[in-house]
């Protein structure tokens, strides 16, 4: 069992001690449409952030809820969905909010305004789920950490797994797409991240971060570069294609901050959730200076996502 960094008081503590790692998808083969006709029209089929979305949604792990900040992100957030130990958030094309409920071993779906009971919950067997993402057909992908796999579940999310991804996966945490619909996964078991081309069930087409990462959690893709939260070292490491070399940029968030969630808005601003610092910070391009905004009033923030204001 690997020796790992323990989290202070959130969902990961007991489970990670048992699994030997610190915690935290993606398309599954269907052809993506080339155009959109809804108000959520996207720049590319796998671009997760419509330009009109400026809300910052945070899985407030120790707070037991999902909260939303709105620009300029300096006030108190609004408490939305009540979820015990939420660790990841994501949106589908209908503006529905999905939340990983860690101890419930499930992913919950909430309709706007996200303050009521969930309208759906996954029933597929999971073991310590973390990162989630949805494709343009609203298929849900889940980093099934304890089973070292990524599973795909189709709407209405109450059936068995539609697809299972295991090649190159080891204790997965974060999931992200690039605009070409390639799937990226952080692997805490091997301290790297892997890239998959559709239909994602074959061997990874690239592996990055080996030798540079220590407990990678969230990741996001921006202009082909992979931005990876390095939980243990308190940094975000940036890798350029083909991802095999050393980082092209290091963003130091602080040795004791434990970066966990990560997201971009449509303007290219970078948001990083700092688990141990109980903050979310915002960086402007080129991400080499100090944060331009700090969001507080949080309790162990885990996954984050840009969503409807």
Proportion of residues in β-strands: 35-45%
* CATH architecture label name of the domain at 12-29 and 85-270: 6 Propeller
Task: Report the principal-axis shape.
Answer: globular
In spatial order, strands of the major sheet run: 3-2-1-24
Order of helices and strands: HEEEEEEEEEEEEEEEEEEEEEEEE
Q: How far apart, in Å, are the first and last alpha carbons?
A: 43 Å
What is the CA-atom radius of gyration, in angstroms? 17 Å
**CATH-derived topology of the domain at 12-29 and 85-270:** Neuraminidase
Tally of DSSP helical segments: 1
- Main beta sheet strand tally, sense and closure: 4 strands, antiparallel
CATH superfamily of the domain at 12-29 and 85-270: TolB, C-terminal domain
The beta-strand count equals 24
Q: pLDDT average, as an integer?
A: 86
How does the helix and strand content classify structurally? mainly beta
CATH C-level class of the domain at 12-29 and 85-270: Mainly Beta
- Enumerate the spans where pLDDT stays under 50 for 5 or more consecutive residues: 1-44
Roughly how much helix do the residues carry, as a percent range?
A: under 10%
What would your notes on this structure say?
The protein has 309 residues and is mostly beta strands. It has a domain at 12-29 and 85-270: Neuraminidase (6 Propeller), CATH 2.120.10.30. The protein contains 1 helix and 24 strands. The strands form 6 sheets. It has a 4-stranded antiparallel sheet, with no helix packed on it. Strands 4-5-6-7 form a 4-stranded antiparallel sheet, with no helix packed on it. The protein has a 4-stranded antiparallel sheet with strand order 8-9-10-11, with no helix packed on it. The longest helix is centred in the N-terminal third of the chain and has 8 residues, at 12-19. The radius of gyration is 17 Å and the shape is globular. It starts with 11 loop residues before the first helix and ends with a strand. Residues 1-44 have low confidence and may be disordered.
